[in-house]
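Appendix C. Worked example: Putative methyltransferase, type 11
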Amino acid sequence: MAESDKVFAGSIPKFYDTLMVPLIFEAYAADMAARVAASSPGAVLETAAGSGVVTRALAPRLGADARYVVTDLNQPMLDYAATRQGSDSRIEWRQADALDLPFEDAAFDVVCCQFGAMFFPDRVAGYAEARRVLRAGGRFVFNVWDRIEENAFADDVTNAVAAVFPHDPPRFLARTPHGYHDIARIREDLKRAGFTGIEIETREEVSRAASAREVATAYCQGTPLRNEIETRDASLLQLATDRATQAIASDRGEGPVAGKIQAHVIVATG
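Step 2, the predicted output written as structure tokens:
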């Protein structure tokens, strides 16, 4: 993973939340919130919270006395998430590295992480930290994207942007968000971290947007793909967005568009 893959700053948080979240994250956030809340946990830790889509879905489902600690490595994303949440005395916002959590052992009933594990530089270490802060019988609930070929818009955008930079194609989407999809590898990493009960479900959803332009803007300007494009030639950001728009529209039309998205949802215990 390139260092730029982890940079969610500048205008990215706003584009990410207003465009990417409704496009691909909301359905999985609702699913995760339901899974986490099912056991009526008294203490929940969320890592890699991003712009707060899971936080917004989960907070209303937790009990009045619950403790909910929301963390992210990127302070700009965490700051943005806090502005979207509103006042809630149960929530503590804290910048934290999922690989080195600043919490005592056995402090939480559930640890959840939506589409963050792919960004961990050492996933076994991250999983071991989640296990360390879980109480006996606690659950680690997280999800990761399936391979990019199973996620239509991400694949379209990657191929279109590659044509703009044929000698050095930006591969952020394939390399990182969609680069950790092998179920056998995920199971092995969790076992190495000490988890013994591992359930994995592959869930297909449909991504929808008002236009191909909205999808292209979301991916090209609301994710670290933007960093890759601008590093190569910042003046070509709009051209890359235009080419991605054309690629999506050629397959799915000029009006509202829809495409398949697919992810693995994991619940680990023990």
